[in-house]
Structure formats: structure tokens, C-alpha cells
Amino acid sequence: MSASGAAAALPLDRPAEGQTSSSGASTALPALRVVPAPRSEPKALGAPVERRRPPVIALQGVLPLVLDGRLPSGVDPAVAPRPTASSSLPDPEPLCGGLVVAAVEVLAGTRPAAQLLRWLTADVYAGLQQRAALAQRVRGRRRHARAVVRRVVASTPRDGVVEAAVVVWDGERVRAAALRLEGVDGRWRVTALQIG
Asked: Strand pairing of 148-158 and 174-184?
């Protein structure tokens, strides 16, 4: 495009390069820069392909794995799980009923076990997953009846610990369940669960 063609392409209300506007300000346009077009041809078949690895960003160091309940030396006790008194926790009876209903629904195949992960210890969660997998193989299909709590009886053997028996109807039969809740880090966690 020629210089006269470029000037003709400018909007009518914009003065050409080097001219001044009606307000008296200079209207110098930035110089155009010519860059080569990017290559768009594909690489030849069999040519080596350059693979780039994404950069590895370390966000956090390795945390210790605690299997026996004791803290390894060097672990700050300030970050260890802390028992919580019953007085600073919510009423456990509705929670007991809700957790047993959810566990029965996991066994029936209508709820994923991962939804209970924050409420169960690792051992209880693994046992529930194993039993749900076995029940699915035996049953072969999912039932869709909602479990209903009939009765909850709870006792407190010591501060921060609740043991409860829950009677629940799962749509086909009445089941009994027993569970133990312990107050840890400001919430109740199920440390033992048996469903009949």
C-alpha cells in the first residue's frame, strides 16, 4: 500500500501523519513494523519432535506418614491432631443418625463413599469402601430406597467421646449400627463403625 493509499484509509476525523489537529496537538502515528509471517508448514514425517517438559514447581515438602499413632521425632506437636471437648462440639445425636444413613446408602450403592471421607478415620473409611465393593458384587444392581433413622441412643463414656446405637430402615429391612465418635480438631470423627 502506498503512502497516499494509507492516508486515504485514515478516518475522516483523524488528520494525516505530520499534521496537527484542530486543538493544535501533533498527531504523529507510530511507525509500522514489518515482521515475517510464522512458519506454518508441518514437519516432515519421521522428523524428530521436540518435546518440552513443563517446569516442576515444588509447593510443599514431604510430610511424614504416621501409621502407628505416634508422631515421628521432629514433628511439631502444634500440628498434631488435638482432642476437642464435647462442650465445644455440636450435638452428636443428629450427626450419628445422618452418618449411619449415609453409610447405609454407600453400602446400597446410592452414595459415593468419598462424601464421608472428612467424617471417618482412614481405617473406618477403608472398611466401608471394602464392604461397599463386596455388596455391589453380591447385589449387582443399585437400590434407590432412602434409608430412614428409627432411633438413636447415645452415651458419653468420657469427655470428647460418644458411642451410639442407631436403628435404621433401608427400604428392605431394619438394620442396627454402632459407632464411636471422637472430638478431634474441632469436629466429630467416626473412629469405629459396625453396620448389621
From this structure: unpaired
Backbone phi and psi for residue 101, each to the nearest 5 degrees, phi listed first: -60, -45
- What is the C-alpha to C-alpha distance for residues 112 and 36, in angstroms, rounded to an integer? 56
Query: Could you give the CA distance from residue 13 to residue 11 in angstroms, rounded to a whole number?
Result: 6
The count of C-alpha atoms lying within 13 angstroms of the C-alpha of 32, restricted to the half-sphere facing its C-beta, is 7
Task: Give residue-wise pLDDT tens across range 100-144.
Answer: 999 998 888 888 888 888 889 999 999 999 998 888 887 766 666
Q: Which helix (H) or strand (E) holds 165?
A: strand 161-169
**CB burial class (10 A; 0-12, 13-18, 19+) of residue 100?**
buried
| Angstrom distances, CA of residue 163 to CA of 98, 154, 182 | 15, 6, 9
> Going from the N-terminus, what domains does the chain have, and what CATH number goes with each?
86-195 (3.10.450.50)
- What would the pLDDT profile of 43-78 be if each residue is shown by its tens digit? 777 777 776 666 655 554 545 545 455 555 655 666
